Amino acid sequence: MGTKHTRIADDPDDPDDLLPAESVLSLEEYLEMQAAIGNRTRFEIVYRLSRTDELTPTEFESMMEIDDSTLHYHLNELRDVGLIEKRVRTERDSEGLYTYYRATILGDVILEHGVEELLRREWAFSEAYDSSEH
């Protein structure tokens, strides 16, 4: 039976063996993160957070033209899988805002080495498979 080329010589045959026994997260948790960022709205939230220190729900609503309940649903989904975190100030700032969100390290990593890497490679893919030049 043929196999695809392997990127790492020691890739296991069973996906359950991809992580070391002392892994911080389980395979299921990593897959949940991947599924969460696979949604267009959640991808945009993490993308925007990875390029700023933090944003408030009000800032998201104006940037993304998204209603409050939909935004909070997606923020909660991303928090549940550990891709973003919420910071609450004990006192409101001058604009009355006190809740802020920021990307976690895992959020930055899954974005940069997952979805964004695929998007960066799109240029190379399209050039490699462009039949109009042949």
From TrEMBL:
HTH arsR-type domain location: 22-117
Molecular-function annotations in GO: DNA-binding transcription factor activity
CDD domains: HTH_ARSR
Protein name: Regulatory protein ArsR
PROSITE patterns: HTH_ARSR_2
SMART domains on file: HTH_ARSR
Organism: Natrinema altunense (strain JCM 12890 / CGMCC 1.3731 / AJ2)
